[in-house]
Amino acid sequence: MPVSTKKQVNRYFNGAPTSRLIVTVENELVDKVDSMIKRRGGDYSHPCFGNRAEFVRQAIAEKLARESS
């Protein structure tokens, strides 16, 4: 059976290979993230607006940038 490549390359990442990262966190943390990404008066054009996955991706990237410098 052929291996699917559907989610290995994502159009949002300009053809770069991607992997799924699944995390388990406390409900309270999810509520805080949801509150932040759905704030009224927020920037609707911001990639994190209403998008948990993008919020988490950016948070990880920012943390790695801070820790590696």
Automatic annotation (TrEMBL):
CDD domains: RHH_NikR_HicB-like (cd22231). This is Toxin-antitoxin system protein. It comes from Chimaeribacter coloradensis.
